[in-house]
């Protein structure tokens, strides 16, 4: 079994590639349905990623419907690839979304909200382990962002797949998840 970040990235990118559009929709809806049961709905500010469809990421549209139905403040980010920093914007009726050069859908501009306000973060990932360590694409955007959030901010990974037993090359600076939600179940770390 591969256990290094590099090997797991390759394996999980291939697993996602194998999913059909219908499977992605079905599994994304199942993940949103799992979220309904979680004790996270007493907060105000929720940060959601918008999926890179070309990478077959989880469709977070269902999560957005859930949040807007519960009248929550929804935040999206814009990534600066030079500074590796994310700027967060409030979703409003006027928010315009545009794909950047990496096909990441991002808000064009809007009302900026600091990381310290974020109470719940839905975290994209490629793979994760039973201890709550996650692997993203390796750019470090989310580790940097999560380190700027309050320590009590709830970090929830969303994954189509079950956890691996262990990721070998975890760094001190890697921030662990509190939960990971799959179509079948919720893992708590």
Automatic annotation (TrEMBL):
It catalyses: (6S)-5-formyl-5,6,7,8-tetrahydrofolate + ATP = (6R)-5,10-methenyltetrahydrofolate + ADP + phosphate. ATP binds at residues 5-9, 134-142. GO terms for biological process: folic acid-containing compound biosynthetic process; tetrahydrofolate interconversion. Keywords: ATP-binding, Ligase, Magnesium, Metal-binding, Nucleotide-binding. The keyword RNA-binding does not apply. Gene3D superfamilies: NagB/RpiA/CoA transferase-like. Signal peptide: none annotated. The keyword Magnesium applies. Its EC number is 6.3.3.2. Substrate binds at residues 52, 57. It comes from the Bacteria. GO terms for molecular function: 5-formyltetrahydrofolate cyclo-ligase activity; ATP binding; metal ion binding. Pfam families: 5-FTHF_cyc-lig (PF01812). It is an enzyme of class 6 (ligase). Its cofactor is Mg(2+). Belongs to the 5-formyltetrahydrofolate cyclo-ligase family. PANTHER family: 5-FORMYLTETRAHYDROFOLATE CYCLO-LIGASE, ATPASE INHIBITOR/5-FORMYLTETRAHYDROFOLATE CYCLO-LIGASE. This is 5-formyltetrahydrofolate cyclo-ligase.
